Amino acid sequence: MSILYTSTTLGPLVLQNRMVMAPMTRSRATGNIPNALMADYYAQRGTAGLIITEGASPSPNGLGYARIPGIFSQAQVEGWKATTEAVHKKGAKIFLQIMHSGRISHPLNMPAGARVIAPSAVAASGEMYTDAGGMKPFPVPEAMTLEDIKSTVAEYVQGAKNAVAAGFDGIELHGANGYLLEQFIRPNSNLRTDNYGGSIENRARFVLEVVNAVIAAIGREKVGIRLSPFGVFQ
Fold first, then answer.
1. Average pLDDT over the chain, rounded to whole?
2. DSSP-derived secondary structure letter, 4
3. Segments making up each domain of the chain, as ranges
């Protein structure tokens, strides 16, 4: 038997095999709430060792694409429970990818009162699909204040706690593909002149604050982060 099909460990977790399913945006969460169709999708792949879900936003402000799920409301927690229960019945472990889209968003894809925010007021090039209006140029985001940064860290923490409450075995922070965490790291999207901009030490500060806060909330054995230092997407 191939070693691929043998069990292994990931920290304290025992995986039934060495196959890991990577995350992929599905845009099936009508109203941003996980549903039965999503539970079926992940259950069909529950013979993997580990599944990492599509990105779920920790905040209304992080809902970038049309119909992506969140992890900030009780309805979303309850919706995700159907997925985690179905996957666990098949033997797989499952991590929730937490993805705040930052400037990769459009108001037409967001609920009333949500804001398109980013490290700096620099629009991404290109367009985004919206259900309400088709393709739309990326808007100029609001530059985050220090209070915005503090509250967004807290949103990541609450999202991680909500993920554990929904039955996930852990979470993956999405720090790649041009989303909020990477927007702080990249000098073309982070033009700040305070302690969160300039040097790489400063540009990494927000990311490390999020990582440390989430670890403090749910434990380091349940936290991963996705990085893509050579990626150019968005």
1. 97
2. G
3. 18-227
